[in-house]
Every structure is written in C-alpha cells, then in structure tokens.
Amino acid sequence: MDYLCIILLIIVVFISIRELINSKKVSNDNIYGIYQNSRFYRLLFVVIACVFSIVMFVVRKIFY
Fold first, then answer.
1. 19, 40 Cβ separation under 8 angstroms
2. Could you tell me if 16 and 47 are in contact, meaning their C-beta atoms sit under 8 angstroms apart?
3. Total of domains in the chain
4. Which residue from 39, 17, 44, 14 is spatially nearest to 26, judged by alpha carbons?
5. Are 47 and 17 in contact (CB under 8 A)?
6. Measured in whole angstroms, how far is the alpha carbon of residue 19 from the centre of its chain?
7. Containing H/E element for 32?
8. Which of the 8 DSSP states describes residue 64?
9. Are 26 and 36 in contact (CB under 8 A)?
10. CA-to-CA distance for 12 and 24, rounded, in angstroms?
11. How remote is the C-alpha of 15 from its chain's centroid?
C-alpha cells in the first residue's frame, strides 16, 4: 500500500511540474493575474510537499 501511495505522489509531482512549466507568472495588476499567481504558488507548494513526502518515505525505508 505504501508503494501505491508513492507511485501516486510521483505521478502528481510530474503533472504539477508540467503545469508549472506551462504556466507563466504574470503581474498582479488585475484579478486574473492574482488568480494565476496563486495557482502557480499552490502548484509549487504541492510539488514541494510531494517531494518531501517521497524523500521521507525513502529515508524511512532505508533506515528501518
């Protein structure tokens, strides 16, 4: 079950990174720009959290 979760996290990371590359940060001078930038930062947070979870899983499997 742990390996299934890790595989799903890896898939989420790849999809999120692809979306981050496709999205561009825009200026915050209108509502659309604020929305796009918040989407960018939410995706970035998802990538960081997933990578951290994967690293913690690997470290736990190595040391235990």
1. no
2. yes
3. 1
4. 39
5. yes
6. 10
7. helix 31-63
8. -
9. yes
10. 19
11. 8
Closest among 47, 45, 29, 25 to 37, alpha carbons compared? 25
* pLDDT tens digits for range 2-37: 788 888 888 888 888 888 888 766 565 666 666 667
User: Which residue range forms the structural domain that includes residue 42?
Assistant: 1-63
Tokens 């997933």 belong to residue: 50
CA dihedral sign of residues 38, 17, 26, 36: negative
Residue carrying structure tokens 């796009």: 36
Q: Considering the entire predicted model, what is its pTM?
A: 0.73
Burial code (b: 16+ CB inside 10 Å, e: under 16) for 29-55 equals eeeeeeebbeebeebeebbeebeeeee
